[in-house]
UniProtKB/TrEMBL annotation, chain A:
This is Peptide/nickel transport system ATP-binding protein. SUPFAM superfamilies: P-loop containing nucleoside triphosphate hydrolases (SSF52540). It comes from Agromyces terreus. Keywords: ATP-binding, Nucleotide-binding, Transport. Belongs to the ABC transporter superfamily. Transmembrane segments: none annotated. Pfam families: ABC_tran, oligo_HPY. It comes from the Bacteria. Residues 283-328 are annotated as: Disordered.
From TrEMBL, chain B:
It comes from Agromyces terreus. PROSITE patterns: ABC_TM1 (PS50928). It holds the Pfam family BPD_transp_1. Its main location: membrane. The lineage of its organism: Bacteria, Bacillati, Actinomycetota, Actinomycetes, Micrococcales. This is Peptide/nickel transport system permease protein. It is found in: Cell membrane.
Amino acid sequence: MSAGTAALSPPRTDGPGPVLEVTGLSISFSEGRRRRDVVHDIDLAVAPGRCVAVVGESGSGKSVTARALLGLAGRTARVHAERLSVAGADLRNADERAWRRVRGASAGLVLQDALVSLDPLRTIGREIADPLRIHLRMPPAEARARALELLELVGMPHPALAIDRRSGELSGGMRQRALIAAALALDPPLLIADEPTTALDVGVQARVLGLLEEARDRGTGVLLISHDLAVVSRVADHVVVLHDGRVVEQGPAAEILGAPRHPITRALIAAVPTDVPRGEALSRAAAADPEPPVAPSAPSADGTAAAGGRRPVEAAPAEAPPMSADPRVARDAEAPVLEGFGLAKSFGSGATAVHAVADASFRLHRGRTLGLVGESGSGKSTLARLVLGLTPPDAGEVRLDGGAWSTLVERDRRPLRPRIGAVYQDALGSFDPRWSVRRILRDALGAARMPASDAAVAALLEQVHLSPELAARHPLALSGGQRQRVAIARALAGSPGILVCDEPVSALDATVQARVLDLFDELQRKHGLAILLISHDLGVIRHMSDTIAVMRSGRIIEQGDADRVFTSPQHEATAALIRDSPRLVPRAPGTNR
Amino acid sequence: MPRSRVLRRVALRLAGAVFVLWAVATLTFFAIHLVPGDPAQAILGGPGSQASQEALDRVRADYGLDQPLLVQYAAMLGRLLSGDLGDSYALKTPVAGLIGGQILGTLVLALLALVVAWVLAVALALWSTSAGRAGRAIAGGLELTAAALPHFWLATVLIAVFSTALGWLPPVSNDAASGLVLPVVTLAVPLAGFLAQLMREQMLQALEEPFAVSAAARGETAAGLRFRHALRHAALPAINLSGWAVGYLISGAVVVETVFARPGLGRTLLRATELRDVPVVVGVVLVVALVYVLMTIATDVVSRLADPRTTHSGGAT
């Protein structure tokens, strides 16, 4: 395993035995005097040149398992295993020195969220050279040269410049590449990747997955931790499904993804929105509910039971105008509730000005969803702020219900604000943590000049399928899905006709995301809501949208009917987005490596 | 950063500094007139001099002390603007010369104390973050105690132990280096407790961050994690506080210089205040404020150098 030649080394053929062997792994944490068991009796094996994926919801014990394999589960963790070996080294009773010999040399770790996984005060060149310095005592100049090679290996643009940059100066994809380069510095036989593509744009995600595939094809054993089955289906040979710290199902990827047997696996697969038709519930198959069972099951029956795979346009509210045979035609003939004309917004001035939005026009109709998709930095969120009347446009106009909106002064706009509700990605950050759910909702009701009674709060909670008992809780005491439901309830407080949702499910687990998406569908059917849905996730956009607008560098480069955009994209960038977006397509056993 | 923005920043800082100096001079001037006593007495040799009423009246007229307070204030501002700190009432010598003779001793004392406090704080933070739970509790107790120690009490105890009982060090500060030890330690220990507490918390926080886990996963040693990663993150807030610390040290110097009978600005200020020697008080306070402003700018520059995130060019390492 010569580090100097790893970039050029031929596929590894070190035959004997798996690079990772774990049997009977259990992990518990001490909390005061009590012990909490988080992982029970797990078996794992990774062979050279293979990729094993561990999937499950957050809290299923995936990440702590990954860390325990490197002895990094933390001071309060107690790890027990009948067998625990990495690259042939028995680590059951390893002391700190023995662990250090493994870390970085026999096994590399790539963590989620590269923004905080690289030291913001050090250059990535130093971070990548760390294993060389630590394990090989390589002189700095030589280590730097090797770090440069590694940056080239992971496809970093302008490696000679990037090597002296710090994480704050790099994009998300570049950071993830740097992290992978650091993990691969010594060409370790085992690479552990913990949610390596979460929070990345699809294009970047595809390239990062490509890097993992390349490492695998060079002979590295890859252990991939993920909650995203679409990602897993692309690279994994073998899938292990975890739930509550136990393995509920495992086997070849094609088998697990193609013919899942356990309900948990089925729920995870059903939650992937990519190829589920518009209007069809994603969470129906979710037999086991990892969230506390606070939602009474009854209210969803009216919505989801009717949805047999077709969009039930008949379920539109009674006050909707009469429709012709094709409801879509009828809808589009209606006046749009929200319209943007030639919107532009730039920040800064002169040569350094950033044109966040340039010449964007769109229409949003009652009871319809406009999906706005694009990479981060493409201007989606700025457009949302223009629509919400939080930022005045430099040029163009937003019109609400055919009347003025963006041109109004705030005093005249305020009475109209309840017409538009907003839901953001970071629900927690949008709440005052000292306020109870009741106070949050009462505040929203008051702002919309609605009666802020306890009954009104309970009615709002019921609309989002939360128990009225939650009203007394504080945001920190809620799960991620519950928080996002409270955020939706708050957006509904003014009985809006329009919802603007900026990445509303990006921070949620797949099955929680599925239930929240179903809730949006149901609310839209009940109230005829027009929804502007912003997401970087093409699967979410495709499942939820009637029309789609694709943004790139502040411009809407393509706009049209959802099916048309997906089946015959007119713009090269749209085609690339669709191509890079991971889909849940289990490879046939024959093509499985 | 474009040149124009740099210039704007510099201009803003200078304007801020001028404002601080004006505010300090104003506050000091009015504050000292709230203290009972008669400057004319001070000019004629203090309350014990038994000067005649005639002499007092003449002095008041000569020095403009019979004018309304606002007129005296305006006269002082005019003098300060022309760069003249005036003459001491009591000593009849220029204030600038008086300060010039004393400032070096105080600055040496304060800066040495700052360096010693940093060394102690870094050592304590490095040790306590590697020690177990008991070590951390001990370190926490030490830091809290040190930070709470009053200078006059610490000075007295140090003299009692190291001069009177052990006889290792002189109780009175002299020109020899050994005379500096006790005053410097007196000033440094409480500050070290304060800085160590701050740094320890920051280090523990940094060690919990994912980047520390990533580094550990590359095989970094526990010491490497603290030196290469955590210490730098902990040093940044401590650097930012060091500008404030110099002000704290100079005010502490008033006590320490008095206890150790060491010449310096602190003692000069104390005597001048007792005598209501207005020009000296205003002059000393202005100079201390100037040092404070300069230190704040210096820590800003240092923390910019230490924290690459605040510069836009990058690639400096």
